[in-house]
Amino acid sequence: MTIHLDHTIVPSRDKAGAARQLAELLAVPRGRAAAGPFTAVYVNDSLTLDFIDTGEAFPVYHFCFRVDDAAFDAILARLDAAGIPWRGEVRGADDRKVGTYGGGRNVYWNQPDGHQWEILTRSYARQPR
Q: H-helix or E-strand containing 20?
């Protein structure tokens, strides 16, 4: 049996705004989730991020999206067009430098709730098979 992550819940102070921003940056669909009080971002055919409004304290989450070179360039251009600061290191100044950790390209940015998004062109979490 193959196991796939189907969805995860992302806490937010503004679920609609947070979902809209991520969907626009990644150029993927979003909308009301099929079940529950969520605004969904349909990352791909098998993964949905379900944003939910909460007034409770929540930790900052990190989500990393592996993309091809063309998508990387397009997302980076959308970050710039939206005026969203980004960096090449997981921590540090938003210096607009592209990281090369793991032999590919990667960048990080934080959204208004503090969650950290990353795009990369080559996984450093997994060794090639």
A: helix 15-26
53-98 pLDDT per residue, tens = 999 999 999 999 999 999 999 999 999 999 999 999 999 999 999 9
Read off the amino acid at residue 18.
A
Does the structure show a pLDDT above 90 at 1? Answer: no
Structure tokens at 35: 């079940």
Give the span between the Cα atoms of 29 and 84, in whole angstroms.
20
Start-to-end CA distance of the chain, whole Å, equals: 19
Joined tokens for residue 48: 């949905």
Give all domains of the chain, ordered by start, each with its CATH number.
1-56 (3.30.720.120), 59-129 (3.10.180.10)
Burial bucket for residue 92 (CB in 10 Å: 0-12, 13-18, 19+): exposed
Find out whether 86 and 77 touch, Cβ atoms under 8 Å.
no
The Cα–Cα gap between 64 and 120 comes to: 7
